[in-house]
Design goal:
Layout (H helix, E strand, L loop, with lengths): L1 H19 L21 H11 L12 H4 L14 E2 L3 E2 L25 H10 L8 H9 L2 H11 L6 H13 L7 H6 L8 H12 L16 E3 L16 H4 L7 E3 L21 H13 L5 H12 L27
Helix pairs in contact: 2-7, 4-7, 9-12, 11-12
This protein binds heme C (2 copies).
């Protein structure tokens, strides 16, 4: 009995000590570690995952968010531009959904203010999933298991696009990649990255990359011109931020991409103009900073960039409920 009491006491004391333990602190650097994502509502996240993998949100019944943001390949499709409804080629390279919550806004031009605002877009985009919000809802509403899930999470009988995008966003919030070797170094493990990788990070700061690629996502904190020092002439048709603001000075400004997991998400740039990370680094040095890097400098920076690959989300494939006689049929046209 006495043993049990003192054991209980020890557990209690340990509990208090471990609860009051301060958050792990990281080095004072312009890049911050990816925090472990906390799940507040596991049921909502699970529903969001189902919807992320749900091809019936598309007109053809064939394309899901995961088609273009494949969680097996870094949350992107690794294609120059995505393939949408009826094999249409999209106008721009698909960014990764991994760590997208750390972006100041969504899309290359920032036209969606957050993940929920973004998630309604592709469903109704004629070149992507080519459905309508009305049709997508009609499909979900025809499947009793979905009706029950929405009812239990949102207390609604009639599903609306609000709940659909809220659940998808809740799932995307969990798609973070903590524990990269670079983050281990940020948390004080001196041996987590090699001397070459450390030299690469030093160059990344000295040369000025970090002015634009910083914060938790190593990007996503500002809009910047592609072609600051030298005009980028390969693609003069995609105007970037200008399309949103119509300000002349926003032409060719893009949301600075996240460099987390960058080795997994080739091809690079909004126009997918290179598949080679070394070349991408050289283009940046030349067009953004007006510098020529030596081969050795390029290699060191790339070695550093590869330390930004973190633990990929562990996904258990969701099992989706079957359609019913009431479910509107897929339409390939
Ligand atoms: C047909 C391919 C395709 C499908 C399907 C698709 N996306 Fe995308 N997604 C893209 C492309 C291409 C972009 C970039 C478009 C742009 O910036 O103009 C993008 C951008 C995004 C972004 C912004 C990321 C960033 O860094 O700005 C998020 C988040 C996202 N998609 C989530 C989703 C979700 C959620 C779904 C399902 C509801 C979905 N996507 C369906 C191709 C697709
Ligand atoms: C003035 C701001 C700025 C500076 C400085 C800068 N970048 Fe960038 N970076 C951007 C922008 C904006 C893009 C997106 C360009 C596009 O595709 O439209 C980008 C894209 C990239 C990409 C491709 C990302 C992807 O997902 O396609 C890599 C890699 C990259 N930068 C690395 C670097 C490195 C390394 C340096 C330093 C040598 C650097 N950047 C300096 C703003 C900057």
């Amino acid at each position: 009995m006495k043993f049990i009491k003192s054991f209980a006491f020890a557990v209690l004391v340990f509990g208090i000590i471990s609860c009051s333990k301060p958050e792990k602190t990281s080095r004072d650097e312009p890049i911050k570690p990816v925090p472990i994502s906390k799940i507040d509502n596991a049921q909502k996240v699970e529903l969001g995952k189902m919807l992320f993998f749900e091809p019936r949100l598309s007109k053809s019944g064939f394309i899901s968010c995961n088609s273009c943001h494949n969680l097996s390949t870094g949350g992107a499709d690794n294609l120059p531009s995505s393939i949408g409804h009826g094999w249409q080629l999209g106008p721009i390279n698909s960014p990764t959904v991994l760590n997208a919550k750390f972006n100041l806004a969504q899309f290359w031009d920032g036209r969606a203010k957050d993940l929920q605002d973004q998630a309604g877009g592709p469903i109704a985009n004629p070149g992507e999933m080519a459905s309508t919000h009305t049709l997508a809802i009609e499909i979900l509403q025809s499947i009793p298991q979905y009706v029950d899930l929405f009812k239990s999470i949102y207390s609604v009988d009639k599903i609306t696009i609000e709940e659909v995008t809220d659940a998808i966003a809740a799932f995307e919030e969990t798609l973070t990649t903590p524990n990269s070797r670079f983050d281990q170094w940020l948390f004080g493990d001196e041996n987590a990255i090699t001397d070459v990788e450390k030299a690469g990070y030093a160059l990344f700061k000295e040369k000025g990359c970090v002015a634009c690629h910083n914060g938790v996502g190593v990007g996503g904190t500002s809009y910047q011109k592609f072609g600051v020092v030298k005009a980028y002439e390969k693609d003069t048709e995609t105007l970037g931020r200008f399309d949103v603001t119509k300000n002349e000075q926003d032409k060719y400004f893009f949301k600075v991409p996240l460099l987390r997991n960058i080795e997994l998400t080739a091809p690079y740039f909004h126009d997918a103009s290179t598949v080679d990370l070394v070349e991408a680094v050289q283009v940046m040095a030349e067009y953004q900073l007006g510098q020529q890097l030596t081969q050795d400098e390029q290699n060191k920076i790339v070695a550093f960039l590869k330390t930004l690959t973190g633990d990929q989300p562990v996904i258990t494939y969701p099992i989706l409920p079957p359609s019913t006689a009431k479910t509107p049929p897929p339409d390939r046209n």
